[in-house]
Specification:
Elements: H1 2-37, H2 44-55, H3 64-71, H4 75-213
Amino acid sequence: MFRRGNLKSEFRNDDKHVTAVAAAAFSIHSIEQAAAANLISRPQSMRRKNHSTLSERPTYGGDTSVKRSSFGEDGRRKEGSVPLRGSSDDISSKRTVPQTQGHQKQIGIPIQHNNKANAEAWEKAKLKKIQKRYEKIKSQILSWEREKKIHAKMHMEKKKNELEKRRIVTTQHYNNKIASIDKVAQGALTQLEDKRRKELSRATEKANKIRKTGKVPPAINCFCFSHL
């Protein structure tokens, strides 16, 4: 009778314990929903503090350890007490896991935003660096082009001046050559003309003597002309 009455009393105490745990789980779930709405706006330290506070399991009624130890004295009673003790742990674990997942999802939003901002900042800096490097190379190419064109023009002008001087010298030499030829030719023509006039004059004189005397002078087959 004592054992049977004691067993009923322990079952009633366990029912009260299960009811208290269920009420505590419902209360904690309500608190978590209210805290989740303000979790994003709170600092990281406050979120960790709230998370640790909500993870603590409250104790209701008397000393449950005494009840569990007294209830575990009998093997038959111990088999019925396993799901009761496990039920509070299961409720606590089920309560904690969704909170952690929700916490990670809430933290994932600013992390994704930061990653996107960092990627855009990196891309902007990289493109600016590439553009600056290619602008520098382009400036060097244009500078090289201008320098080579100036050098080529100066070289051309130098050659042109040299050719102009050479042309002048060549032209002068040609003119001198032509003048010398003209001088020699004109001298020869003048000399020839003088000899022609002299020959004509002598012939006229002989003709006049023949008219006067009637005698023909002997023929002279000598016609002298100096070589040019």
